[in-house]
Amino acid sequence: MKLFKLSQTENSGWDTFDSLIVTAETEEDARNIHPQEYWDDPSEIEWGEPYGTWCSSPDSVEVEYLGEAKEGTERGIILASFNAG
């Protein structure tokens, strides 16, 4: 499992996520992690919804490889930066 920093600049107002630290197997897998997947049913998340809290599609996510995660770490979000308003 690898560590990645995800960021987006498409939505930068109040009540938006600007970045995440995640664990995933690949860059492509990381790019598809949505910051609200643990607060809602993942099957109901639509990119660009709800209320534009993240970018509109995985293609708009910037991905930076940070290194290897500790053995046994599961895929998902480690830390999220949310700009509450």
Q: What is the terminal-to-terminal distance? A: 34 Å
Radius of gyration: 12 Å
- How many extended strands? 4
Mean pLDDT, all residues: 87
Structural class: mainly beta
Main β-sheet, spatial strand arrangement: 3-1-2-4
What is the string of helix and strand elements? EEHEE
The low-pLDDT segments are: none
Task: Give your account of this protein's structure.
This protein is mainly β and 85 residues long. It has one domain. The protein is built from one helix and four strands; from the N terminus they run E-E-H-E-E. Strands 3-1-2-4 form a four-stranded antiparallel sheet.
Q: How is the secondary structure organized here?
A:
Blueprint: E1 2-7, E2 16-24, H1 27-31, E3 62-68, E4 76-83
Antiparallel strand pairs: 1-2, 1-3, 2-4
Concise account of the structure shown:
The protein is mainly beta. The mean pLDDT is 87.
Features:
85 residues, 1 helix, globular, mainly beta, single chain
